[in-house]
Amino acid sequence: MSRAATNPFDLEIIRNALDTIAEEITLTIIRTAYSQIVRDSLDFSTAVCDTQGRTLAQGVCTPMHLGSFYDAWRNLVSELDGDPHPDDVFIMNDPYAAAGQHLPDIYVVQPVYWQDALAGWIMTLAHHSDVGGIVAGSNALGAHEIWQEGLRIPVLRLVDAGRRNETLWKMIALNVRTPTLVHGDLNAQMAACRIGARGLVRLYERYGRPMLEQAFEDLHAHARRLAQAEIRDLPDGVYRFTDHIDGIGANPEPVVFEVAVTIDGERVVVDWTGSSRQVPGGINSTFPFTKACAYAALRSIMTADIPNCHGYTEIIEVRAPEGTVVRPVSPGPCGARGITGYRMIDCLFGALAKAAPERVCADGGGGSTLPTIAGRRDDGPWVFCETMMGTWGASLEHDGMDGGPHIGANQSNVPIELIEQTYPLRIEHYGLVPDSGGPGRTRGGLALRRDYRLLDANATLNVRSDKRAFPPHGLAGGGPGRPSVSHLIDDDRETLLPVLLSEPVAMRAGALYRHVMASGGGYGPAQARDPQAVLADCLEEKLTVQAARRDYGVVIVDGPPLRVDVAATAKVRAQWRPLPDTDPAA
Question: Which of 30, 41, 162, 188 has the smallest number of CB atoms closer than 10 Å to its CB?
């Protein structure tokens, strides 16, 4: 016999309690993790799930993981040898044997019991500094098969009925370049699971099983109803868009993403038919990740306060043909699939701009650049990697955000001081690039530049970046952003690097790696920008007076103080020739 629906006031309290537990799990990992890519870049996610593996609340870090926990849980349960024990902790990472995402992303999962019965699951997913394979950092863009990418972990017990599986711990340590960091991060994930389990048990103690499980069902239903209402507000239709990744290596072949977003009443179908076949390189996206990216993109244009739980994903169907870059089959490599996730979200925004242009930004920096610099010291190998985030495109009402993370990953650039304290690297330049934002009525965010100097022994450099051959597009007549660029500078020799290296390049002591990310596209015609806003950009040194005239038709008198020449501006703008249109809705 079903219970009556949960009182709305109680439901809101329980929802916030679940969110608090998820955030407490997140903070535990931040406080206890060893590696910078987890602790400082925040490349991890946490979730509280019900007994059926459906997400009830998720931490703040990586929206691109949103919804993927459910597929991982279903695979875990199907692979279980007997029922889970209250003191078990499970580990897995393999895309094909464990519904994982890529090998560096390791799930650590704990069942939660209350009064001798299963009460839920705490799930964590963290990007580890290294899991072996042919490239330090395990993001092998040139890998042709998954066996080249590192240690493959099926569903296993990391802790079995309270006893650590020492054989497995030793196996992991032997197969990775940074065993101290990897073991430290795994322990941080386990500590976070224990904290989350404790919080969920306290919730059961307060409300009891019947009320709490009814509240979980009501929370899913509440999220589903809110999402349905949001979709009903959008015009029915099929909205298509095509986007690209430049390709891998010195002679890249573009990778095509074609999406059709069908809005039909209260439901959405996201169909990737027409996208490139899976590639012999590590950028293939596993299907759980492809679904999670669709959930994140659609969630980001919804204006209601929708709980980040499984319920709202139930109105979204994702389709992708097997054997494609968005749904590879074994043994397709996927170690660097993050760039594909960003591009899928960008592609979805291009389609959604046709349905709701006021809710979507112009194209941005394309997600994180992932530089990996690795070498060896007397005490063993060292591996530096970070998710370097850049900028947003402009929106209907605001200039693009400078130095912000992609919507798919709420991650952070590692602070300079921590890099220089830990590795033989010096950051010699870190800042915004003037004149780089895509022109528009609202301006695209500026490009970000970071220079890394190798101080001592030789190392190798691996780079995952994008948006050079296909720079960020504008919206509603806005201009495109600037493309990305990477250089390796050794003495007087400056080498332009491919956006995606097929294999690491040698980096001698004293060499410098310089990366400039792509900038954001503009929104609306540049000649419609308020001249005072152009002047403000010049005063903040985001724009030179030459670019003000060239890109916006605004004549700035080079003071001091700087000021707008109103008459000259009117004359220049009367003769204005707009920039080439890059609007995907055109």
Answer: 162
